[in-house]
Write a structure and sequence with these properties.
mainly alpha, 65% helix
C-alpha cells in the first residue's frame, strides 16, 4: 500500500504543477468537505440525535483506518 503512494507522488506533483490553484481548489474543497467536515458533523449529530449524512465516497484508505489505528 505504501508503495502505491510512492509511485503516485511524482504523477500527482506533475499534475499539481501544471494546473492553477483556481482549477484545483474545487476538487480539493470537495475532498476536504467529504473527509473532514461531514465526519465532524456526523459525530456531533449522533451525540445530539440529529440526522447524519452519508457519502458515497470511501476515504478509509487515506489513513483514517490504516494510518491511525
Amino acid at each position: 500500500m505504501i508503495i502505491d503512494v510512492y509511485l503516485a507522488i511524482p504523477f500527482v506533483a506533475t499534475i499539481v504543477q501544471k494546473f492553477s490553484w483556481k482549477t484545483l481548489s474545487i476538487p480539493m474543497l470537495a475532498i476536504f468537505c467529504c473527509s473532514f467536515v461531514l465526519k465532524t458533523y456526523n459525530v456531533i449529530a449522533e451525540v445530539n440525535h440529529w440526522t447524519t449524512f452519508e457519502t458515497k465516497l470511501d476515504f478509509k484508505f487515506v489513513g483514517a483506518t490504516y494510518g491511525y489505528t
